[in-house]
Specification:
Blueprint lengths: L1 E6 L4 H17 L2 E6 L4 H7 L5 E4 L2 E5 L4 H9 L3
Parallel strand pairs: 1-2
Antiparallel strand pairs: 1-3, 3-4
InterPro entries: Glutaredoxin-like, Thioredoxin-like_sf
Protein name: Glutaredoxin family protein
Pfam family, one: Glrx-like
Length: 79
């Protein structure tokens, strides 16, 4: 299963979120695709006020201030 992580460079919340997401990915054996919202105008428009954003399938698991337990619970659904 691949989870999408939307963020951008020079974003402290994104950097912290990547660390937390890496722990969750390791615990659940997930693949994480890191997507820079600045490389796609449509994605930038959609998520610019929410980053970081973690998406599994069509569902936003969490955005903004990410935490391990919420990500673990949201990303483990259906595994």
């Amino acid at each position: 299963m691949t989870v999408l992580f939307y963020g951008r460079p020079n974003c402290a919340l994104c950097d912290e979120g990547k660390k937390i997401m890496a722990m969750v990915a390791q615990d659940l054996a997930l693949n994480v695709a890191y997507i820079n919202i600045e490389e796609d105008d449509q994605v930038h428009e959609k998520y610019m006020l929410m980053i970081p954003v973690v998406v599994k399938g069509e569902k936003v698991v969490q955005y903004g201030q990410l935490d391990y337990l919420t990500l673990l619970d949201g990303c483990s659904d259906g595994l």
